[in-house]
């Protein structure tokens, strides 16, 4: 027998929870749920997973995480990474941002202050006669990393605390 | 740069928690999440020239996802890195065995780590990034029907993992 709900599939249950169904589809799913204990059990399953994951969706990074990330970003070259895709968005739908989704505010200032302090120290504190950066070692290390078959992570890993040497 | 477009520093400052959360849930551990966030910020910095004000979090999530999938593909291209008796080295990153984790967040992280990335990515983009199915389809490059199916199957797998671990609710 052909039924109007023959097109229904249980993967519509997650879409139902996420508000991703049309009004017609939602009505059909609700009618199916009213009739089928199997569907209701599956709905409970996915609802539980969804609820638990969303309950812990956002969390703070551990201490030191952002300092390390910022030091790496500041020190990294601007050269394009091999295999990088065009990340520019095609759509421009405005979505309001959740106010609670705010990253730690202090680390970025700390990271930049640290980078600035390193740069200042390089410029002011050491005399050219007494301190020389080990360029040869840096070149060898950098070359070794850069030859890592296009590793998008490895190629941007700083060789050392070189933030002060950036132009 | 177009008016209204934030700098990458502003993005990092205002959306760092979002970036970390997505990266951590995708990567499965803090070390890989650190690499993921760092590379994502570099791409964000370069991509801001082309960015048009819109769904900022969707755009960021897409970048994080691209970086993550690039790394997954890179690992698959280089199976020689894996030791013959250590198949886990070519599988998606999972929390290190010596990481003592407790609490619901860590139980969920362990369960997510068991999901193949084809399922983990859309589930994370939906439930952590709160993207629409259309945005997830755009970010992952798969049809929206496939996104719907993978989210549902991914959640079922996640629930099964959690149930097996004795986790029944928040």
Question: How far do the termini of chain B sit from each other?
Answer: 44 Å
Provide the β-strand percentage band of chain A.
under 5%
Helix content of chain B: 55-70%
What level of helicity do the residues of chain A show? 40-55%
Question: Order of SSEs of chain B, N→C?
Answer: HHHHHHH
Low-confidence stretches of chain A: 83-107, 120-167
Discrete helix count of chain A: 6
Count every beta strand of chain A, where a strand is a DSSP E run of 2 or more residues: 0
* Principal-axis shape of chain A: elongated
- The average pLDDT value of chain A, as a whole number, equals 64
Low-confidence stretches of chain B: 80-101
CATH topology of chain B: Arc Repressor Mutant, subunit A
Broad CATH class of chain B: Mainly Alpha
N-to-C terminal Cα separation of chain A, in Å?
Answer: 74 Å
Shape of chain B: globular
> What is the alpha-carbon Rg of chain A in Å?
27 Å
Note down, in words, how this protein is organized.
The complex is a heterodimer of chains A (167) and B (170). Chain A has helices spanning 12-17, 23-35, 37-55, 65-75, 106-124, 135-146. With 167 residues, chain A is an all-alpha fold. Chain A has three domains: 4-56; 65-116, no CATH class; 132-167. In chain A, helix 2 (23-35) packs across helix 3 and helix 4 (65-75) packs across helix 5. Residues 83-107 and 120-167 of chain A have low confidence and may be disordered. Chain B has helices at 8-27, 30-47, 56-77, 103-113, 117-127, 133-140, 144-164. In chain B, 65% of the residues lie in helices and 0% in strands. Chain B has one domain (8-164): Winged helix-like DNA-binding domain superfamily/Winged helix DNA-binding domain (Arc Repressor Mutant, subunit A). At the A-B interface, helix 1, helix 3, helix 4 and helix 5 of A face helix 1, helix 2, helix 3, helix 4 and helix 5 of B.
